[in-house]
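<derive_structure_tokens>
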Amino acid sequence: MGSIFVDDDDADRRFLFYTVAKDKDWSKSSISLATSSNSIDFRQSSEDILIEGRNDSFCKHQALNPAVTRVKNRFYMIFAGKDSPRSPRKIGIAFADDLKGPWHIIGELIHPSHFWEGTAIDNGCTVVKLNDETLLLYYSSLTSPKIYDVSYFLRRYPTRRIGILKVRVNGTSLSSIEAMRFSGNPLKHLNGPKNSWNESVFCPGYVKLDGKHYLFPAASTYSLRFPFKQHIGIVGGNTPYFLEKTSQALKLIDGPVEKNKIMPGIKSEIAIDTPSAYVDVENRKLLLYYSVADRADEVWKIALTAFDLTG
């Protein structure tokens, strides 16, 4: 799962941070980097692994789903992780003086504690800068409910939802970083009803374009039998909080319909995750990078769809 980042001081290069795993069962995962000068042809960084969990870190077992931004003269990466195969997935932070590293793990920001989050949470793939030190992120629940979630056991299928996390960064230690969750589940209106394409939404990307804010959630219908039908949506809003009830999700990429175009030769249903958006202002294009896998082999890759903004 990957995310695209462009630094204002190096606008000619695209930095694609992505997850690498030792096997398709994800027995252990880390974070790596590839760069490009044309947004299409990416070359892996000379450093094979940027972040791999230390024995004493929250991401000892898994580090995945990175999102990167600059705060003053340093870079910060917010990403998901877990310290053992059976531990819940959490969200933490690292910093570096250079995008190519070395990256230093600071520690855990939040772990699942709200009822709607279930037993694990996952990171989105975009950091929104509200000001020089305040960041906004979108994170999501995973598919494991809490044991006393009666509604889950009545409906017998999981529902993933998106939450909002505000992070204030004043340094490189946990004591200088403040993480604040929005109470409740403020974006629950982005979920559709049972059997709808956006029954579950998760791991969204974000861009601001022509003064308007756009969210790109991955979406799935878990109430239908496996292999699940998955898509990418788009949500427009007047603020990056998308709290207006009018901010409803529309389908942007139809996975089952477009799967052969996205993955030629695909044998089963397409799996879709972590859409990451970037606006190519010069060429007036929206570039949407997202993770895809053929359910026949579950090997994850990164796809790109470009949308013309000149119309």
Notes: The chain has one domain: 2-308. The two ends are 31 Å apart (CA to CA).
